[in-house]
């Protein structure tokens, strides 16, 4: 009989325990396995439509938006939020100021949730118009921060890079689900829960000549829930003479906590 040390016995016991759970030991987990495990956890989450008592107040600020020129609208079932901009536009070319190459918008959503409920963000769809000359590219970046979330310090984000020459006419520039849904703190029916979303659009040169010209940006960004509910039918924005009107739609998923 072969004698096993206490360390070997502990390792064997842990391996057998993991095998019983049909998962590999932690030290053997690959990136793909971790992602699959997170997806499985999300699949186990019981989601629902917006509960009675859910409300939201909005504000916006940045070089591409302000509360006075940004319109917020919740869908009738309160599972999606549409944000319409009138100044979220980027341009580049002869005679255009450098400040027009980057626009940002910081949106604060102050929500009230009934006791025992939380909400999260699970899917993004971006539509837009671009006219990108050679040597110019469009860069999009968004971050979504749920303040006082159960797991602090985690932020959802998405990014997109489109090099020129290219033209998109009301096209889907990006769509996809987050690998793992981050949820807000649990509501108590009274306390406001703050959520901060930021959208950035940049026109950047891809070569050293600095001569690229064009205009680019987002027409719409749609955030949908993991239940696959359809998005509301929103009118597209237009780009004329390098001026872009933009729209962002956030769709939320809810769960009991």
TrEMBL record:
Protein's name in the database: Secreted protein
Keyword ATP-binding: no
Entry-linked InterPro entries: DUF4360
Position of the signal peptide: 1-22
Keyword Acetylation attributed: no
Entry keyword set: Signal
